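Bench log. Compound arrived from synthesis this morning; before running ITC I wanted a structural hypothesis for how glutathione sits in the protein. Inputs:
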Amino acid sequence: MKLYHAPASPFARKVTVLLHEAGASGRVTLVPASGTPLDPGTMPVDRNPLGKIPALERPEGPTLYDSRVITRYLDETLQAGLYPAAPRLWDTLVLEATADGIAEAAVLMRYEMHVRPEPVRSADWAEAQWQKIDRALDAVEARWMSHLSGPVDMGQIAIGCALGYLDFRFGDRDWQATRPALAAWHRAFAARPAMLATAPAA
Ligand SMILES: N[C@@H](CCC(=O)N[C@@H](CS)C(=O)NCC(=O)O)C(=O)O
């Protein structure tokens, strides 16, 4: 299998963390790709018409895209057990969606401030994205710590990748200051071998 991948992408990282957790990194070749909303760059649009990373080429069918589709596919194919049975599954999926929403808002902020041409950049628009992140982090601190301390699942991995991206791109925002429980969880989770092996890079 081939994974179109970028080392800074929190969405691609979800996939590589799953592979490490499943002991299956050798099953997938990473293919470097890069693109932005203004230009798909080296991400082949015949593989993902949306031009987004990650996308997974697999032997038995069309290329899969959107990290949540790829992680469900790999979890089932590799029997990784990172999506538990219902009813816990619904919590795992909502936590993963919350994490992806945090990462999506952060990536949009990055595009707004670094990719959109300077004369049309909006600091208010970028700040509104950060407000989504703030609210989501507060919700995780208030309601999700018990799930986060349970068995490892894709919800936890997605939160770990989203927080890693915040630290990588927005370290000066100090999200940890008002969320001590989540900050402590993240410190421990970030030390897992799968997280250390996939740390974001420019
Ligand atoms: N919902 C998608 C989001 C993927 C995404 O936004 N990836 C970014 C890189 S971190 C990208 O490819 N951006 C290029 C674009 O938006 O055109 C997923 O989970 O895979």
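What the model suggests: Residues 6, 9, 11, 35-37, 51-54, 66-68, 100, 107 surround glutathione (CB under 6 Å). The chain is about 55% helix and 10% strand.
ITC booked for Thursday regardless.
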